[in-house]
Amino acid sequence: MPNMIKQLAQSAAVSVIGIRTEDDPPYAVIDRIGGVELRQYGMRAVAETSVHA
């Protein structure tokens, strides 16, 4: 468990300073408005959990 917490902390730290460690999922650019892309992503699974202490 401590190793998992360390990995989570490292991942959070690099995301705060703008370093990404995961690849973007595949997407199609639907439109561009100025410097903004409207993207369509494929289906994906999402899970939500709650922890009550």
Please, could you describe this protein's structure?
The protein is about 30% helix and about 25% strand. The chain has one helix spanning about 1-15; strands spanning about 25-35, 35-40. It has one domain (about 1-40). The longest helix has 15 residues, at about 1-15. The protein has about 55 residues and is an alpha+beta fold. Strand 1 and strand 2 (about 35-40) form a beta hairpin. It contains 1 helix and 2 strands; from the N terminus they run αββ. The protein is extended. The mean pLDDT is about 80.
- Rounded average pLDDT: 79
* Total number of strands: 2
Overall number of structural domains? 1
The share of residues in extended strands comes to 15-25%
Cα-to-Cα separation, first versus last residue: 18 Å
What's the Cα radius of gyration?
16 Å
Approximate shape: extended
Please estimate the helix content.
25-40%
Q: What is the structural class?
A: alpha+beta
Number of continuous helical runs = 1
SSE ordering: HEE
Biggest sheet features: 2 strands, antiparallel
As residue ranges, the low-confidence spans are none
Strand and helix map with partners:
Layout: H1 2-16, E1 27-33, E2 36-41
Antiparallel strand pairs: 1-2
